[in-house]
Specification:
Elements (H helix, E strand, L loop, with lengths): L1 H5 L15 H30 L25 H15 L5 H27 L7 H22 L7 E3 L7 E3 L4 H19 L5 H21 L1 H7 L10 H19 L8 H18 L3 H7 L1 H20 L9 H7 L4 H21 L5
Antiparallel strand pairs: 1-2
Amino acid sequence: MLYNLLYPLADFFQPFNLFRYLTFRTGGAIMTALLISFLIGPAVIRWLKSKQRAGQPIRSDGPETHLRKKGTPTMGGLMIIFSVTISTLLWVDIHNPYMWIVLWVFLGYGAIGFADDYAKLTRSSHKGVPGRLRLFLECSIALVAVALTMHTEAEPLRSGLALPFFKTLLIDLGWFFIPFGVVVIVGAANAVNLTDGLDGLAIGSIMIAAACFGLIAYLVGNAVFANYLQIHNVQGAGELAVFCGALVGAGLGFLWFNAPPAAVFMGDTGSLAMGGALGAISVITKHEIVLAIIGGLFVMETLSVIIQVVSFKTRGKRVFKMAPIHHHFEKLGWAETTVVIRFWIIAIVLALIGLSTLKLR
């Protein structure tokens, strides 16, 4: 919004020319989201505590150390959603269609997560919105986002799947790109949701992935850099760097309150919103496969659950002491902070591998 209001006045006041640069506006989005998080955080936490008597339900079969977390409020993702939305609208070009597509997914999935968290709190159990209804809503939102993306992008990118490590290869999926894109967005949202189980784990990993995709969006949206790196140029996708910056800033602010011992949990409200948004950004920038690399930690968490369920149903045995896998290491005796920091290290390594695909072609 500031870009649309102030940049046209650059001829009259030279400093307004700064709003022309994506790097400046991305930095502004980071700091704005961080500041908003710091300002509203204490009030949001007090409000959540006043509304939630028992806090987020704690699994009785989980690690014993988690029992002390009883009474910690959830739905802290509201803080993230508010900070990211306000910051993005403030610093982005509001005429950019991709920004509205990502915000549609971000806010839509945040609403689903909010309903799920609310249902769990009112029932004092882990059963929230019925699984089939939740999946239907997630797929519906993703379907609209993918359809709008295909309508906005030009050929041959519209239905093309780009592969990392290959210069110009683009596989035309045709109409099959729609279900593919839906799976990417829904899968990313739920993978992040499964990772959200330890103080700081999910938000730290999200910030790493968001920073990477902020860089990817900037490079993909810049014709000069895209040509130099021999990646597909998506005109207008660069504005998504502003959203990613806001996600990083809001994440830093939330981590201040979510650091062990957490004063608040993000809940499905935050995890579904952020995961879905990252999935949407990967679809728009044509880096869906790279998301699986950069977000490899989320993939690992999801696979651990799938393996555990399949093994128990087919063999009657568990592969892990507890799934998702971060709980497995807790059961082995690792301290929670040890698991979180080591998983952050894994996320950083995978992020570097994912970013290397931009040049190794």
